[in-house]
Amino acid sequence: MGIGSEEAIRQLRALVDQVDERLKCTFQNVHQGYLTETLERFLKAREWNVSKAHKMLVDCLNWRVDNAIDMMLTKPILPVDVYRAVRDSQLIGLSGYSREGLPVFAIGVGLSTFDKASVNYYVQSHIQINEYRDRIILPSASKKYGQPITTCVKVLDMTGLKLSALSQIKLLTIISTIDDLNYPEKTNTYFIVNVPYIFSSCWKVVKPLLQERTRKKIQVLSGSGRDELLKIMDYSSLPHFCKREGSGSSRHSSDGAENCYSLDHSFHQQLYNHIKEQAVQESSRPIKQGSVHVSLPEPGAEGTEIARTIELELHKYGNANGKSNGLSNSLGSLKI
């Protein structure tokens, strides 16, 4: 870290020391004792502009207070059938750790349907996983590996990506915006695997729209990416859809215990049990059913432009392949 970086962190820390006690309390849940690394993340997200990083951080802390994000891990999604439906349609899980100790999150981009629950449930689930990652998984990894571990690795499986993805773009843009504004720079590297032609077509036009620091994090791998991923993690930490040669994947692995998307996987069992235990500790009253409503951000200029570009490219792909029928209906379903 250079002298300029150290000075920027010092200035930002001095500004953060001036916020009111409500914001200081929630900030503790954000930095988890790794204050310098947290300030550095917000500075990176704003190209080391102290004033912009300060505004971003204060906005994030206000968002957390206004939406009771600190209590999110005390709000289980009930009944369990609803949570299972969310897990079956929002495919994400923790498959293991890199050799450096970074958690490896697997995300089934192509096979996620987001059609089994309301938007609020999917947003709630996503934020809960973020909070569990930041407040439980990363501190535990830091302790185990004896060094600050404040970021993760994500492996994005594009198997099954179709034109119907149009119906998911707005929700995915909202979730991405929540991450960009409130959980910046939490992903060290994005590995994209099992890439179909439709993704390759979109990637060519989307890539130039991304900020340089984001482009540098993204690696599009050949096939399932197994050989490349084995350079940074053991076989046991590979997502189930990478434990094969070539490309192609499925929602489920041959060994159900390995399917980190499933509610039956140890990660989701531990997460769900943790939330239920926290809920009982926080309240003596019966736990209410229903989703938690969080204020949804308006996508920024970059996110909006990327979403629009993806829509246009999918239109072109559909028209070129004689599959444009129904696209207008898909676009019409982009309502929150």
Which helices and strands, and how do they pair?
Blueprint: H1 3-16, H2 21-31, H3 35-45, H4 50-66, H5 80-89, E1 92-97, E2 103-108, H6 119-145, E3 152-157, H7 169-182, E4 187-193, H8 197-206, H9 212-215, E5 218-220, H10 226-229, H11 266-282, H12 301-320, H13 327-332
Parallel strand pairs: 2-3, 3-4, 4-5
Antiparallel strand pairs: 1-2
Key features?
CRAL/TRIO_N_dom; Phosphatidylinositol Transfer Protein Sec14p; CRAL-TRIO domain-containing protein; Helicase, Ruva Protein, domain 3; five-stranded mixed sheet; CRAL-TRIO_dom_sf; about 325 residues; CRAL-TRIO_dom
Biggest beta sheet summary = 5 strands, mixed
Instruction: Describe the global form.
Output: globular
Write out the CATH superfamily name of the largest domain: CRAL-TRIO lipid binding domain
Unreliably modeled segments: 247-256, 323-336
Beta-strand portion reads 5-15%
Helix proportion: 40-55%
Provide the CATH architecture of the largest domain. 3-Layer(aba) Sandwich
At the first level of CATH, the class of the largest domain is Alpha Beta
SS field, number of helical segments: 13
| Cα radius of gyration in angstroms | 20 Å
CATH topology of the largest domain: Phosphatidylinositol Transfer Protein Sec14p
Q: Please report the total strand number as a whole number.
A: 5
Total domain units: 2
End-to-end C-alpha gap: 42 Å
Summary, kept brief:
With 336 residues, the protein is α/β, with parallel strands linked by helices. Helix content is 49%, strand content 8%.
